[in-house]
Structure formats: structure tokens, C-alpha cells
Here is the input.
Amino acid sequence: MVKGESMQPMHQLMGYDRAITMFSPDGRLLQVEYAKKTVRQGSTAIAMVCSDGLLFVTDKRIIDSLVVPETVEKIWQIDEHIGATASGILSDARVLIERAQLKAQQHRVTFDSAIDTLTVVKDICDLKQICTQSGGLRPFGVSLLVAGIDNNVPRLYETDPTGIFYQYKATVIGEGEPEIEEILQKRDPPDK
Amino acid sequence: MVKGESMQPMHQLMGYDRAITMFSPDGRLLQVEYAKKTVRQGSTAIAMVCSDGLLFVTDKRIIDSLVVPETVEKIWQIDEHIGATASGILSDARVLIERAQLKAQQHRVTFDSAIDTLTVVKDICDLKQICTQSGGLRPFGVSLLVAGIDNNVPRLYETDPTGIFYQYKATVIGEGEPEIEEILQKRDPPDK
Amino acid sequence: MVKGESMQPMHQLMGYDRAITMFSPDGRLLQVEYAKKTVRQGSTAIAMVCSDGLLFVTDKRIIDSLVVPETVEKIWQIDEHIGATASGILSDARVLIERAQLKAQQHRVTFDSAIDTLTVVKDICDLKQICTQSGGLRPFGVSLLVAGIDNNVPRLYETDPTGIFYQYKATVIGEGEPEIEEILQKRDPPDK
Amino acid sequence: MVKGESMQPMHQLMGYDRAITMFSPDGRLLQVEYAKKTVRQGSTAIAMVCSDGLLFVTDKRIIDSLVVPETVEKIWQIDEHIGATASGILSDARVLIERAQLKAQQHRVTFDSAIDTLTVVKDICDLKQICTQSGGLRPFGVSLLVAGIDNNVPRLYETDPTGIFYQYKATVIGEGEPEIEEILQKRDPPDK
Amino acid sequence: MVKGESMQPMHQLMGYDRAITMFSPDGRLLQVEYAKKTVRQGSTAIAMVCSDGLLFVTDKRIIDSLVVPETVEKIWQIDEHIGATASGILSDARVLIERAQLKAQQHRVTFDSAIDTLTVVKDICDLKQICTQSGGLRPFGVSLLVAGIDNNVPRLYETDPTGIFYQYKATVIGEGEPEIEEILQKRDPPDK
Amino acid sequence: MVKGESMQPMHQLMGYDRAITMFSPDGRLLQVEYAKKTVRQGSTAIAMVCSDGLLFVTDKRIIDSLVVPETVEKIWQIDEHIGATASGILSDARVLIERAQLKAQQHRVTFDSAIDTLTVVKDICDLKQICTQSGGLRPFGVSLLVAGIDNNVPRLYETDPTGIFYQYKATVIGEGEPEIEEILQKRDPPDK
Amino acid sequence: MVKGESMQPMHQLMGYDRAITMFSPDGRLLQVEYAKKTVRQGSTAIAMVCSDGLLFVTDKRIIDSLVVPETVEKIWQIDEHIGATASGILSDARVLIERAQLKAQQHRVTFDSAIDTLTVVKDICDLKQICTQSGGLRPFGVSLLVAGIDNNVPRLYETDPTGIFYQYKATVIGEGEPEIEEILQKRDPPDK
Here is the structure.
């Protein structure tokens, strides 16, 4: 989208990107696009649906040898059957994960059954969408990979800062995304 | 409206388009017009009233082969007899669809009958209108095609970011709209 | 008011018209004046008090042959005896009409009698006035012609974006207003 | 106040008049002064205390022959014994008048007696003052002449956009104020 | 404070005086200083503690001969034993006086005794202080002289727009303050 | 911190000091620093812990001979055993003192014992901190010296506009602080 | 990240760092980065997990000899088994510490057991995160080292202004961080 790129500096000069709830003249939400850039610069996180389960691979990026490595959280458990990883602002991720954990727990108490992975994903994305539309809030600067096993079927979702989500066979977010994606595409994905 | 077009850059320089609840000197709401541009750049969605029902055609735009294609939602079911598709920001669409689903469900519980398609459309448009008039909110960057069969009569509506809606025999939103519209107009539309 | 006109561009350069709740140095509310421009560019709507009732004439401006023409609403029924038409932003009109319909319905339930046309008009204008005085809201970009028959007497009112209203024998809003007004003035208005 | 006048353009350049709750460096509230200018450009309204009652004279400024002249309100009845007229933004006036009518009605119900004209005037002015001090609201762009007969004594008050009021023997607001005031001053005012 | 004076125009150019809740780099609240200028331009008001009571002298500044002079309020009674006068924006004064009158009345009802003059003054100053610290409100543009006789002891207080107050033997606010103050200082003030 | 000083004018030009809840690029809260400047320009206030109690010395700065000098408050009693003095905006001080008095009184009623001086100081500082972090409020432009005798032990605290406090043997705020501090440091402070 | 550094002055010129809830075009939250700079300039604070407990070392930076040195708080007790130290704005620290103390106390009352150190840390970080995402609040300008002994296991956490935390064997914040960190890394950390 060559035209869009070359117009962006002009949009910056004119301030279209300095207020959240605003479209640029070519119909873009620049603050949301910048939040996505934060994600692309985050530490790499990979998730795959395998023939016998789900696989998370993350780069913890521990550059300080004094950190207790086994305590660095990059993969969170939302419920017995649902996990998640993230790339971007990790404190933003934690807010979303804690919300999802609570949601899952409430579901167990209320319905006496495990929550669906998709329900968790939709709830996360509803909050993300609100933060792109209401004034006084910035978009979440984080993408989440949420994966769970619902009735023995593994499912993997990616949510972006816009609040959009897709179901994937395998996906990667953060640093090195284009290169790793190519590798993932070459692998023969399991049929469902 | 040649004059209007040539005046737009000047309006941009002067900031009429950087606050939602504001008219430009020639009486336009620029943020709403930019939101419509978002829709025009969205993936194509077509809906038609046919002699024996309704037809939705959508371009899912799946460019990543790792996405599980059959899970990509571009056509949503609002109720047993009402469906919808969208073009623009899909997370904005989801918020509106979820609201419509809830509305339809509440109608069934309260009145023990199916909701009218027009009632659903009006409710969506009321929320869209508010987002063009109240500060601290941006307009919804999405158009919806909502179609349903009320008492065996198929009805199709298009809602734009302003909150305006029209009933159509057949219509298209998103990329390629002018070309596809021409084709649709040539087809003999059913009487009703 | 030549002076006012020549001063307007200077006021625009200085930003008097980029915040709603603000007077310009010559005592004008520019955002309200721009909203009126929106109305003048809207599709034409005419209403007349006739010897034996009321007449609405509207231009539906259907330029897309795929629209179902008989479903395009430009004349709304507020109550059994009150109708309305509009020029300007039609989604703004719908918000006001729906409010009026509710108001009329509530009146019937509460007082077991039909609401007065003037009461409906005043209620619409109260909301319009608030939107010219409170921050965080833009003025309504629509004029309404509201006409009703109260105790066999037909009455016709025009409301503008300021929230001002007048009773008319016949009136026109939207595109072509000056030309049509001249024609209406030549017609002999009924003495009532 | 020559200095003040010559400083005003500088104040405008520097933006002291583009936010309501703000003093200019020479201690003026410019938005309130602009609101007063709106009043001076309004249609003329005169009120006088006469030997045997009160007199209102107003210019309805009906320039459109299609308006039903006898329905144009420029003199309102607040209660049996209190009337009012206005100059400036007439929808602003209506808001204040409706509030006063309600206040008068509540007084009758609560105390079983007629409200004092001064009480009505003070209540109007309290609301006007708030709109000059709180953010998110513009001053009322209207002056009101409120006159009533309390215990057989006629009283006439003028309220300006600041929320200041004075009792007058006779007074004029709107277009032509200086000229008409001269005439009123020449008339021998009743001793009361 | 020569340095402060010469820096003020620079502060104005840089906007330190165009938002209420803000200090200038040299530690001043410019909006409050401008409000004080409003007071200095107001009509003169003098109050004195005399050997046998309190004296108020005010300039009503009636320049319009049509005003009923005896109705112009510049000295208000807050309670049987407390009076007040003001200089600056008189509608601001009225808001404070009405609040004080209510406060005094409530005191009588609650404690069955007269309110202390100092209690009234502190309450007025608390409200004035809030208006210099909270966003969305401008400072009160008025100084009040409040004087009362508590247990046969006359007391006189001056409150400024900052919400600061001092007890005086005699004091003057408004136009001509420096000259009149000199005269008051020459007079032998009563010992109390 | 030479670099910081030379960078400040640039920060002023760029507006880092014109919104409260904002850090400058070198990590400073400029509005809080300006509030501290207000304090440094205030009238001098000294407090000391002596061998047999506490000593307050204040400059009342009475430049108007008409003020009743014994009524000028610069030393306030918060409770029987706690006093305070201030430098900076005195109406800001009063708000904090009145809050502390209420807090002390509530403590007596609730716990039937005297409040700790430190508890009073912490409560004052909590409010001061909030005013440096929340939008729509300016920092308090005042430093307080709060001193009390808790169980026969005298304690003296200084609170600044940031909401930071320290316990002192003797301290000074306001005009002439550096010079007086030198003198205080030469005096042999009591051990405790 | 050379490019980021060289772009920062441009971002400053364009105002990306003058509103909290906003990303810069390269996906950074500049206000949060400035808050971190405040921390780096704060007084040094060190914490270590030792073989038989926890060690806090802090620089109290007492430059005024009149301050009572033993009263300067830089190490706070949150509960019997949890302590904390801080670097940055100390009044911001106090707000977080008081909140943590209350949280710990409530835990004891509710569950009759000691709170986990991690629970305290997460609660502090939740509040810190909110202050980086909501308008009208600035980020906390302080890092905290929180350390506790849970069931005989010592644990040490560092929280930054973003609301991110890590568990450390030993860590340092504030002035001199790089140099001291090198020393800490050379020390053989205990295996736990």
C-alpha cells in the first residue's frame, strides 16, 4: 500500500495519530497501527496445534543473569485446558490474562463445566475493541496467542490490538515473525 | 461536488477533521466520511434477495495459509432467520453483531416470537448514530448488510457508519463496490 | 451582513469554529451555522397546510436503482395525527423521530388522549438546544417539519438545528429552498 | 476603555477567548462579552412599567410571509402575573422560560401562593451564572426582560448573559438599544 | 517584582495563563491574578469597624437613569447580624452571598444560635479555593467584604479570589483602592 | 544539575510544563517544581524541637496597617498537642489544615485518644500526592511544618508539594530559607 | 536501538510524549519511558536473597543535617514477612506501600494466613499498569523492590513503572545501577 505509507508522515505532521478515537483521512486508526508495531518488536512467541496437543514456544529474552529464570512468565495457564502466550507490553498482557482466568473460574462455578476457548478469546477481544473506540484509553499494546483443548479438540487463536482474532493451525507473533511464519507454513499442518 | 473536494485539504490543515463532534464550514462531518473510507477499503461483501431466499457472498481475504479457513467468520447468524455480513473493521462489526444477537434473544424470551429484521437494523443504527454525535467515541468503521426472512418475506438492509440504512434488492460493500454494483443492477431483481 | 461574512474566514483561521460551546467575537455560534449548512444541502422536503388537511412532499433522492424505493422513509408517522419529514443527516432525524414517537405513546398511556403537536415540537427543540450548549455533543445536523391535526385544526412547524421553531402555513427545507419558497409564497395560503 | 479595546485583537490571537472558564490578562471573560454581542444583534424588545400595569413591545422580525404571525412567541407568560420577553438566541430563551414556568407552578403547589417576580429572576440568573463559570457549557446568549405584578406593584427586571440583573422603570434590549433608550429616558417615568 | 512583570508577557505567549490548574515557571497562578484584576476594576466598596457598629459605603455605579436606584443591591444581608458588599463580577458575588445566607439559616435551625461571622467567611473561602485548584472551573472574579457583630464585637473580613481572608479595621476594594486606603489609614482606627 | 537547568527553557517551549500529569523527557514533573517555587517565595516559617517543647516562628508579612494583626493566622492548632505553620499559597494551607483538624477530631471520637502527629502528616501527604498524579487538579502550592508532642516526645515534620515528608530537629520554609537553615545547623540540636 | 534514539527528538517536537495514553509511531509509550528515567535518577536501592534471609541496602541521601536520620523511611514493612524499598518519587512509593500494607492486613483478617509476596507484587503492578493506560493519570514514577519470605523461601521482586515485574536473586535500582549490577552479578548467587 505504497500510497498509504507515503501519506503517513504527512498524517503525523497533521496530528491524526495523536488522539485515539480518530480516523485519518484515508480511513486508518493510526494509534492502533502503532500498537501493532509494539507487538512486532516484542519477544517472539509461537503456538502450534500438534497431532496430540498444543505446543507453545517463547523467547523469554532474559538478558539479566540475576533474574530467576524459571519464574519468568511468558506462558500463562488460563484454565486447566487453556493456555496463552503474548508478545508486546507484558503488563498489558497480564491484565488480559487475569481477566480471562477470572472469567474461566466464574464459568466453572456458574455452569459446572469448562469454558470454551472461543468464549475466552471473544471476551478478551471485546475489551481490546473498546480500547480502540473510547476516548481516555489507549489500545492494548499486546497480541495474545490463546490455545485450549475443548472436548479433545485443540484450538489455537491469535488476537491483535484491534480486537480481531483468527483460528490458526500454527502461528507466531513478535520479533522474527515473517521468517518463522515461512518455516511454519512449510511444515505439514495436521488436518484439524 | 467539486468545490467540496478541493476544500477538504484546507479543512484538514485547519483541523476540522481532528475532533469527532464537529461540522466543517461546509456542513460535513469529516470523521464520519473517513470511517466510510475504511469501509470502502474493506473486503468485499455482497447480499441479494433471491426468489427463494437470501444470498450472502463474501471475500474472506485469507492471505495466511496457516489460518483455519472454515473458522473465519464473515457471515454471522443473528437469529434463526437473520444473518449479516460486514466490510470494514471486523472487531467493530463483532461488537454490533453480538449486541444484535443479544437483542434477538431477549425478544424471543420477552415476546415469545422472532424479532423483526428491521428492529434489529434500527437498533444497530441507533448505536452507530450516537458514535457520530457524542464526544469521546469514534464512529464505527464498518458497514453491515443485515438480511432476514420475516413471515416468509426476505428483507435486506445496508447500514453505513452514519447510522443510515436502506432496504435493498441486492447490494455490495467494500472493495470493488462500483464494479460489482453495476453487475447487480443488470440482473433482473425479483419483484418484492 | 457583509462584515460578518468577510470576518468568517478569519474566525476559521483562529479556531472559533472548532469547539462547540463557544461564541465567535461577533457573537455567533459557528458550529450551529455549519449544521444549518448541512440542512441546506439535504434533500428537499416540503409541507403545507391545506384547506382539508396537511401535505408532505419529499425528494427521496434514490440514486441507486437497487434500493427498494417504497421502503425509503422520508415521511414518518409520530402518532395517528402527527407526521414529520426532514432534511439533513437522516440518522440524526431518526433519533429525534423515535424520541417523539415514544413521547406521543407515553402521552396516550398517561393521559388517555392524543398529544398536542406543539408539545412534540417543543420536546424535540429542547434536545436540539442542549446539543448547542453542552460540551461533548455536536448540534443535530437536521431540520424537521412536524405537522399534526389537533382537534381538527392542522398545524405545521419547522425546527432548525438551533432548537428554534416557527409555525408555518407552508414551508420548505433542503436543496432548492429559496426557489420553492417563492412559489409557496405566491400560492394563496388558507386562512387558519 | 480604549486600552481594553485595542488589546482585544491581541487577546484573540492568543486564544483567551476560546475557552469559557478563563480570564484574559486584563480581567475580562471574553466569551461572556461575545454572548452579550449576540444579544445586541437580536430583535428589539422593550418593557415598561406604566401607571396602571406593564407594557411589552417586541419586534417579531417575521421576514417570511409563510410564518403564521400570531403564533410567533416573543412574549411569554411565566405565571398569571409574570411575563417575559427576550433578545438573542431564542431557543436559549425558551429553555430559561420553561424552567421559570415550572418553578412558578411548583411554588403555587407548594406554598399555595403566587411566586415573587424577583424569585423567578434570581433563579434564572443563578443558571446563567453557572454557565459562565463551569467548563463544558457556554454562556446563555440571551437577555430576558421579566416583569410581574406582585401585590399590585409592577416590577420589571433585565437579566444579561453574565447572570446580573437590575430593576428598571423601562428598558430595551437588542437592536437599536441606544436610540430607544434615549427615548425611554425622555419619557417621565412613574414614581414607583 | 520587576522580573516577574517582565516575564509575564513571555508566559502569556507560552500559554501558562490559558489553563486554570497550572503554575507558571516562576510559581504563579496567572488565572487567579487576572481574576484579581477584575476585582480592581470593579465598583468601589468600603467597610469600616466603627466605635458603635459597622459601616458599609458602596458605589452603585448606576449610569442608566431608568434603573430603579433603591433596588440595586451592593450591600447584602447574610443574617440579622452579618452584612456583605463586593467588587468584581456581581453575579459571582450573588452566588456566594446566597450560599452564605443558606449556611446562616441552617446554623440557626440546627444550633438555635447565630452563626459566627468567621464561620461564614471560611465557608466562602473554601469554595473560592476549590475554584482555583480544580479543572473545569474558573476562579470567582469577586472580592467580598463580610462584616458582622458577634456577641457585641464587630468584625470585618476581606476575601480575595484566591480564597485568602484577613480581618480588617477598615478596608476598601475595587476602583480607587490605593487612594482610599491611604485615607482610611490616616483615620484613627478604633481599638478592637 | 547543570544539564537539567539548561534543558528547562527548551521543555517550556515544548509544553512539558503545561499539563500536570506528565513527565518531561528527563523524568521531571515540572508543575510540581513550579509549585515548590511558590513555596520558596512565601513568607518565612520556622519550627524547632526544643529541649522542653516546640517552637514556631513565622513572618506574618502584614504590610497593610489596617489589618487586625492578632487575627492573622500563620500558626494553626490541629489538635491540643499538634500545631502547624505554612509557606506558599495560604488558602491551599487552610484546606489542608481544616482537613487535618477534622481528622484529629474524628480520631478522638473513634478511638478516645489523641491522634499521632505522623498519622496527620501522612494523611496530608496522601492528598498532596494525589494532586500531582490526577488530571484536572493542580499540586498544592504550599509546604507545611507540622509539629506535635506524642507521649511527651516532640516531633516536627516538613511536607512539600510532592507529598514527601521528613522529620526534622529544626527547619525553615519560604523566603530566606538557605540563610536561616545555615543558622539552624550551627545551633546544637537536642538529642531526640 | 540507534534508530529509535535518533527519532526521539522528532517525536518530542511532534508531541507524541505529551499525552499519556498514546503510542509513538514506532510503538513506544514515551511517558512511561520518562518515568523510568525518574527512577534511574533516584537514590540507590539494593536487595538480595541471601542464604539465610533477605538483605536491603539503601542510600537515604540525607543532605540536610537537621533531618532526624533514623526517621527517614526508605525500607518499608508491608507485613511481618514482607519488606520493600524504592527508587524514584518517594511519595508515589508511599501510596503503593500503604496500599500493599492494607492488602496484606485484609488478607490476614479474611483468610487467617499471611499473604504471598507474589500476590502483593501483582496487586501493585495492576495499579501501575492502569496508570499507563487510562487518561487523566500519569504513570507511577517509582520502581519498587518487594521481598518476602513465604514458607521459609525468600523471594525478591522488582516492579517498574510499566507494571512489569521479575523475580531476582539480587537487584539494584536508581543511581549507579549499571555499576552495582556488575558487582552483584560477580557474586555467586545462592541456588534457590
